[in-house]
Amino acid sequence: MRKLTCLLLLLLPIQLLAQQFDPVKALVKRRAPWLSNHIVFEPLKNTSSEIVELQTIKNKLVIHASGANAAAVGINWYLKYYCHRSMSHMGDNMSPVFPIPNVNKKVTVQAAAKYRYALNYCTYNYTMSFYSWPDWERELDWMALNGVNTMLTVEGMEAVWQNTLRKIGYTENEINSFIVGPAYTAWWLMGNIEGWGGPMPQSQIDNRKLIQQKMMKRMQELGIQPVLQGFYGMVPSSLKNKSKAHIIDQGTWGAFKRPDILDPTDPEFSRIAGIYYSEIQKLYGKNIYFFAGDPFHEGGKTEGVDLKKAGTAIQASMQNYYPGSTWVLQGWQDNPKQAMLDGLDKTKVLVQELFGEFTNNWEKRKAYDNTPFIWCSVNNFGERPGVYGKLQRFADEVYRARNSTYSNYLKGVGIMPEGINNNPPDYDLMLELGWRQEHVDTRNWIDKYAQYRYGKSDGHASNAWQGFLQTIYQSLPGYQEGAGESIFCARPALKVKSISSWGTLTRNYDTVAFANAVKEFAKAAPALKNSATYKIDLINMVRQLLANKGTLTFNEMVTAYNSKNLQTFNAASAKFLHMIRLTDDLLNTDQYFRLNTYLKQAIDNGNTAEEKANNLKNELMQITYWGENVRTEDNLHEYAYKEWAGLMDSYYLPRWEIYFDYLRSNLQGKNVQEPDYFSWERKWVDDNQKLNPEKPQRPLLEVVDEILSM
Q1: Which of 385, 404, 448, 541 could be disulfide-bonded to 643 (CB atoms 3.0-4.6 Å)?
Q2: Residue 87 above 80 pLDDT?
Q3: What is the pLDDT of residue 477?
Q4: CB-hemisphere CA count at 13 Å for 107?
Q5: What confidence tens digit (pLDDT) does each residue in 411-430 have?
Q6: What is the C-alpha to C-alpha distance for residues 635 and 641, in angstroms, rounded to an integer?
Q7: What is the rounded distance in angstroms from the CA atom of residue 653 to the CA atom of residue 674?
Q8: Contact, 612 vs 602, CB < 8 A?
Q9: Structure-derived torsion over alpha carbons of residues 244, 298, 412, 64, reported in degrees to the nearest 10
Q10: Which residue ranges does the record assign to the Alpha-N-acetylglucosaminidase C-terminal domain (predicted)?
């Protein structure tokens, strides 16, 4: 009996090590069930780094891994580079492969980065405002497969704030006026706005709390550390009417009243911070090792604050409740402020070099004064459409930082998109850089990407992607907030420099070379006709091509108007409107590009008619005028514009038609009033909180041929 007991005790650690892979087995069953019975997972013992080994042994793919996250990376490596299969935010290529390919010689993949970070605050709204648990389950599977091991997780912070404010004497109405609507959480947590789009119904707050709890459990199973929102002093702007503490009025962020900052050196700070962290512990547990939160984000006022002492106090409260935790700070604009960094224990800080495709603050600021940092890419703003990404710069800068004077402080890489439903090669490459030691040549990488994206090699697709790499995905220096924008989505005017206030209409690539690459890509249609991912990419590339052509037609219209040539103006404006209708036809061929897809997601996320209506209003406001009703502070309109079927023909088309009628009347000598788009846009949102009638779909290749022949 004693021998049996001893044997069981010896076997127990082995059983526990084997069980760590059960969540990865479940992931495979969800995403590639055809592969599930062909894999054996084995733990790698005595390894100090994250590593996975792949090899076929006795007709089974044997995966030796240091942990669940590395095992998931091994699965993805095998899927991509042996099965030519992949998941993405723009379609999946995961159909069965039989027989499964052999790995005849052992393949080793080792982490090159301690942290592989994912998600911007903004991603939670530009993409994830109305995610259900199945959406999050899929998201977390994708994250694990791509080796993410640290992820911003702020889905359930409303419940924490609600409970905290109740404890300090706030009424339910006062709490409701502070917490924002479901599409604006990011800018609330970043300290930019309060109340807008709300109130958030209790059922939504409760549902987000439950989803956050599910997410954190699944993340723990898959080896992904959650990053929750820390308490950095943000408080409702109404608190100064209730408290004698030192509270710094933060003024406005554009048209929005900002929450205030409770001075972290004031005794009241530690009291409220204690309540806040206690509520996090009650809801989400004590095993949390990362907290985000940026004081004075995007223009916050620091007058009267000792920043060094403030930083010390913020970190001290965090450490009191979560000893050993790391404070994650955004390297964005002048954040993190140097004076605040001076007060921190930097061994418990991680700075995100947020906008790495443009900045090199990690170098200019000497690794943020010798602070651990990660190199990140934003790559898009507002989840605006457009194919874009400085792919070779991603590879070059990460490699350069790894081999720089500050290499000891470079702790990883991260994807920080404002919205993630776009540009899949950006995310694939960035996260692979967390598992590649070598200096990646994207010309070689992109060929393999096209193969696993579509399921097989094709000469036309391969040639096209080399063309895309030299145009839309090239790595020219210079400041640019995302892709060149589409003139079709501009608020009408004769002079349009950009569609969103900080975007650009400029094409800094050879548009003729890009057009040739798109035509080459279209030639792959016969060979890839059964590929859903090819279809999505074809739509997207042709959409971009048509947007480029639209700018030329717009310029013809402007020239005709300025020269008072009514006949040419009518022809050019009619052609421009036809292009918008044609864009709608193109996008309507796939649900990914339809407004109704996202409106339905918002509707399904609501439990009552009132909730569904508020969700719809939040969604439609965000993608049109964004928010607030102050004409002198209207800079956010079109910041998150979308080229979606149902939006092109119901919003952008009539807005341009109104404008062309106005210009035509001017040419005809009629005295008419200029359209009031500020009011028109808000009325459109109020009148369109419903699903659009479904339109008949034209055959995709018919629409593509028409556009390519223009």
Answers
A1: 385
A2: yes
A3: 85
A4: 18
A5: 999 999 999 999 999 999 99
A6: 13
A7: 17
A8: yes
A9: 80
A10: 445-708
* 437-441 contact pairs (CB < 8 A, 24+): 437/110, 437/112, 439/395, 439/396, 439/399, 440/395, 440/399, 441/395
Transcribe 108-134 into DSSP letters: EEE-S-SEEEE--TTHHHHTTTT--HH
Mean pLDDT score, 93-112: 97
Distances (CA, A) of 617 to 43, 184, 486: 50, 12, 24
Asked if the model's pLDDT at residue 6 lies above 90, the reply is no
Question: Confidence band (pLDDT; 50, 70, 90) for 18?
Answer: low
Query: Rounded to an integer, what distance in angstroms lies between the CA atom of residue 406 and that of residue 189?
Result: 31
Measured in Å, how far apart are the chain's first and last C-alpha atoms? 84
Question: Which residue reads 């640019």 in tokens?
Answer: 480
Regarding pTM above 0.85, the answer is yes
Look at the block and give the residue holding tokens 């604009």.
Answer: 333
- Tokens read off for 236: 């409702």
Asked whether the beta carbons of 386 and 397 are under 8 A apart, the reply is no
Closest residue by Cα to residue 28 from 96, 88, 91, 84: 96
Q: Specify the pLDDT at position 48.
A: 84
pLDDT attached to residue 4:
57
pLDDT tens digit string along 125-170? Answer: 999 999 999 999 999 999 999 999 999 999 999 999 999 999 999 9
Contact 86, 94 (CB under 8 A): yes
Q: Percentage of residues in the chain with pLDDT exceeding 70?
A: 97
The CA radius of gyration of the chain, in Å to the nearest whole number, is: 26
- Of 629, 624, 604, 626, the C-alpha closest to 615 is 604
- Taking the C-alpha atoms of residue 572 and residue 566, their distance in angstroms, rounded to an integer, is 10
Half-sphere exposure of 48 (CA within 13 A, CB side): 0
DSSP string covering 317-340, please?
HHHHHSTT-EEEEEE-TTPSPHHH
Instruction: Read off the pLDDT of residues 596-635 as tens digits, 9 standing for 90 and up.
Output: 999 999 999 999 999 999 999 999 999 999 999 999 999 9
Note the pLDDT tens digit of each residue in 352-399. 999 999 999 999 999 999 999 999 999 999 999 999 999 999 999 999
Q: Are 623 and 129 in contact (CB under 8 A)?
A: no
The answer to whether 338 touches 310, Cβ cutoff 8 Å, is: no
Pairing of strands 260-262, 247-248: antiparallel
Distance CA 77, CA 145 (A): 8
Residue the block writes with tokens 């409702």? 236
How crowded is the C-beta side of 175, counted as CA atoms within 13 Å? 19
Q: β-strand 39-43 against 60-65: which pairing, if any?
A: parallel
Residue 93 carries which DSSP code? B
C-alpha dihedral sign at 593, 422, 355, 135: positive
Cis peptide bond upstream of 526, omega within 30:
no
| Residue owning tokens 């018919």 | 702
Query: Other C-beta atoms within 10 Å of 402: how many?
Result: 17
Residue 12: pLDDT over 50:
no
pLDDT band at 11 (very low <50, low <70, confident <90, very high): very low
Average pLDDT of the chain? 96
Q: In terms of Cα–Cα distance, which of 432, 352, 429, 343 is closest to 392?
A: 429
What number of helices (H) and strands (E) belong to the chain? Answer: 26, 17
For residue 497, the 8-state DSSP code is S
Q: What is the dihedral of CA 414, 417, 422, 426, to 10 degrees?
A: -30
Q: Are 263 and 248 in contact (CB under 8 A)?
A: yes
The single-letter code of the amino acid at 621 is: M
Q: Which tokens belong to 472?
A: 């839309």
